[in-house]
Design brief:
Elements (H helix, E strand, L loop, with lengths): L15 H10 L1 H11 L12 E5 L59 E5 L1 H9 L18 E9 L9 H35 L9 H17 L11 E8 L4 E9 L6 H19 L4 E9 L3 E4 L1 H6 L9 H14 L6 E8 L8 H12 L3 E8 L6 H12 L3 E5 L6 H8 L8
Parallel strand pairs: 5-6, 5-8, 8-9, 9-10
Antiparallel strand pairs: 1-2, 3-4, 6-7
Helix pairs in contact: 4-5, 8-9, 9-10
């Protein structure tokens, strides 16, 4: 019989397999619970897990049990009322106590909801399982605390475990050839001369010259024998250097109209969209900056609190926010180092003569810097700004626009804006 042993480490004595099956089976309930959890958080607060509450009735499973009546034999341990041969009455049907859920006025307590903690990774996986950033291109940077080692040729010193034997022996052979080439050439000539004298003695060669030649040959052989077979200078070690791990950074520009026509309900819709975009970017980039730009007739960079809760009176000039975004992007976020994303939320109201300029600013200044720019209108009525942006959306794939009028539409619109390329609904 085949046995499969799961040796994956499970934290706090929890079964990873059971947890994964639970998340798959109750994905819809978890998705709805996570959506509700978004309401009371700030954008940066979304980078953590969440305690999910699921009603107990939603996770109940069918069980098998013996029904009332029937004929069966069983053993009752610890029986003090019956002896062998006694007949036991059948239980009456319909006498069940129910599920035990408490009602108003009952003294008992009802069933509690099932509560479990969803980690940050699981939280994001529920939201963005089938999504992908359009035109995603990660920009490689050198600024990172993580390093990896890479081979960088050979060095003459290093750890013995990194010794390259073949390269060391090749160097030793070359050294011996280079050092002893002159002596071996001279030795070869002397040996040929001595052999010739012995085969054909010459009358003019004195008797003492042969021993002298033999002594010279022995000296050369001794010199060659003293050349070390392997010298420390021959050793070559694999060299490894630490190279920064490429990472990616992104900046998210949040632009929103804060004029009198943008009430708290419309700002809440905008906030939900910004939160989803921020969460989505955290899945693809290790470092994310957020720039909040609010505008009415004039634009200003503010913190998150003033961005969502401050209200201004007067008209609306959207181009002021686009101009400020371009200035900040060029001054602090060069495209060679940062991936720039823009998200604009507005009710569509704008000074009539300014909408055409907004289209020109986006087409000529903003979109060449951005990976993606999304415009969300939190009002149903289409005005001149919507018409100008519609022309731009038809020409540029890096720009998208949608309408949102209620909270239930935020997530579907977001999925539509950032669906995987090539996927149709």
């Amino acid at each position: 019989m085949q046995q499969i042993i799961d040796r994956r480490l499970a934290g706090k004595n929890k079964s990873i397999g059971n947890r994964e099956r639970f998340l798959r089976r109750h994905k819809e309930q978890i998705r709805e619970a996570v959506k509700r959890a978004v309401d009371g958080r700030g954008i940066r607060d979304m980078e953590k897990g969440e305690d999910i509450h699921i009603p107990k009735r939603d996770i109940s499973e069918p069980v098998f049990g013996h029904g009332p009546g029937g004929k069966r034999e069983m053993v009752h341990p610890g029986n003090k009322e019956y002896v062998r041969g006694d007949r036991i009455e059948r239980p009456k049907g319909g006498g069940g106590s129910g599920s035990g859920k408490g009602k108003a006025g009952d003294s008992g307590e009802g069933d509690d909801d099932f509560v479990f903690h969803l980690s940050k990774e699981e939280f994001m996986q529920v939201f963005f399982d089938d999504l992908a950033l359009p035109n995603l291109t990660r920009t490689t940077l050198a600024e990172t605390p993580e390093y990896k080692t890479h081979r960088a040729g050979f060095s003459s010193d290093g750890n013995p475990s990194n010794l390259h034997v073949v390269r060391s022996m090749r160097g030793a052979i070359g050294r011996r050839i280079a050092i002893g080439s002159g002596s071996r050439r001279e030795l070869h000539l002397l040996e040929e001369k001595l052999a010739l004298w012995k085969r054909h003695p010459e009358p003019n060669v004195h008797a003492h010259e042969i021993p002298a030649l033999e002594a010279e040959i022995e000296a050369l052989r001794a010199r060659l024998s003293r050349i070390p077979y392997l010298d420390p200078i021959d050793l070559r070690y694999r060299s490894r250097v630490r190279v920064p791990v490429p990472t990616s950074k992104a900046v998210m520009f949040c632009l929103m109209d804060v004029s009198g026509s943008m009430d708290e309900a419309r700002k809440d819709l905008s906030k939900r969209f910004f939160i989803l975009l921020y969460l989505f970017l955290t899945r693809h980039y290790e470092k994310i900056d957020i720039v909040f730009i609010r505008h009415h007739t004039q634009a200003a960079e503010v913190d998150e609190q003033n961005f969502f809760h401050a209200t201004e009176t007067g008209g609306t000039v959207v181009s002021s926010a686009l101009v400020l975004m371009e200035e900040i992007a060029r001054a602090r976020y060069p495209t060679s180092e940062w991936n720039i994303y823009g998200a604009q939320a507005s009710d569509g109201d704008n000074w009539h003569h300014d909408s055409g300029r907004c289209r020109e600013l986006l087409a000529d200044k903003i979109l060449p810097l951005c990976r993606y720019f999304a415009y969300v209108q939190v009002a149903e009525e289409e005005q001149n700004l919507w018409d100008e942006y519609a022309q731009l959306a038809a020409e540029n794939r890096a720009f998208a626009m949608r309408k949102v009028t209620e909270a239930s539409q935020i997530y579907p619109v977001f999925r539509d804006l950032f669906k995987k390329e090539g996927v149709t609904k």
